[in-house]
Specification:
This is Acetyltransferase. InterPro entries: Trans_hexapeptide_repeat (IPR050179), Trimer_LpxA-like_sf (IPR011004). This protein is of the alpha/beta class. The chain folds into two domains: 223 residues, UDP N-Acetylglucosamine Acyltransferase, domain 1 (3 Solenoid), CATH 2.160.10; 37 residues, no CATH class. It is 16% helix and 21% strand. An eight-stranded mixed β-sheet has the order 4-7-9-11-14-17-19-20. A four-stranded parallel β-sheet has the order 8-10-13-16, with no helix packed on it. β19 and β20 form a beta hairpin. It is globular and about 80 Å long.
Length: 279
């Protein structure tokens, strides 16, 4: 099974694209930690390091949570949907979706919000009907002001494909961004628009610096979709295999019927809720 979102194919089931940040706050218990371990959701790179979460703390889990076995959440007290063999050293927004074999460095974030530029003020007073300071002023002065919704929809999800590398201190636009398969984002970049597959981008704002491989090679990689497989099933392939040799070998293995898609179990919010003691 697979799910295609904004042109990126994820080999995870039940993924939901949403602006919602609704979540459940679960107590960290020995039962919850045991559940995460049994389902191969990792909180540290090495088991000997123990758990970075401690009993008595809390863990925020989105309602739409789906994480495949062998995914690695290295920081934070919140989870998000992520595929097998991906690791994140940043607590991404809970409505983020990350594919397989992706690496996310420290302090990656989505910016808080955009303000309209074409109004008499960029202040959120024109749309911030919930702000107590503005409302108290209006009440104290017995005045009224007509708020108009912000035309910019903030809080959009980060859709991050497979085999993506995101460097340290990268910031994403508050409206949300899609990062294509195989892309690389240089540390410190400000990403304001979608990133094409296998592009290397950097800068403020981020722009394309180059592509990882020549166009014909990228086309073959996107056709191959190698991340739908478990790397342990690759035959006669080393970590430093030349890219065209890698493609040739994997294509032959697939043609011979010797490689099947990897379908690890996925963990949902319901699975984690089962560890919460009844009141």
């Amino acid at each position: 099974m697979s799910t295609t979102i904004n042109g990126v194919t994820f080999y995870q089931d039940n993924l939901v694209v949403t602006h919602s940040h609704h979540r459940r706050c679960l107590p960290v218990t020995q039962e919850l930690l045991a559940c995460l371990a049994a389902r191969h959701l990792y909180l540290t790179p090495r088991k000997r390091n123990g758990s970075r979460l401690h009993v008595g703390e809390s863990l925020q889990v989105p309602l739409t949570f789906q994480a495949e076995a062998y995914s690695i959440f290295l920081t934070g007290h919140q989870l998000f949907s992520m595929g097998a063999f991906s690791s994140s050293n940043s607590a991404l927004p809970v409505n983020s979706i990350v594919g397989r074999y992706t690496s996310i460095a420290h302090n990656v974030s989505r910016m808080q919000g955009s303000h309209p530029l074409d109004r008499f003020t960029t202040s959120m007073l024109t749309y911030g009907y919930w702000v107590d300071a503005f409302n108290d002023y209006l009440a104290d002065t017995e005045n009224h002001f007509q708020h108009v919704p912000n035309p910019v929809v903030n809080g959009g999800p980060l859709i991050i494909g497979n085999d993506v590398w995101i460097g340290q201190d990268v910031r994403f636009a508050p409206t949300g961004v899609t990062v294509g398969d195989g892309a690389v984002i240089a540390g410190g970049a400000l990403v304001t628009k979608d990133v094409p597959a296998y592009a290397v981008v950097g800068g403020v704002p981020a722009h394309i610096l180059k592509y990882r491989f020549p166009a014909p090679v990228i086309a073959r990689l996107l056709d191959l979709q190698w991340w739908q497989y478990g790397f342990g099933d690759f035959r006669d392939i080393t970590g430093d295999e030349p890219i065209t040799t890698f493609i040739d070998k994997l294509e032959r293995q697939i043609a011979a019927g010797d490689l099947q898609p990897f379908t690890p179990p996925s963990t949902s919010l319901a699975d984690l809720l089962a560890t919460v003691p009844a009141n």
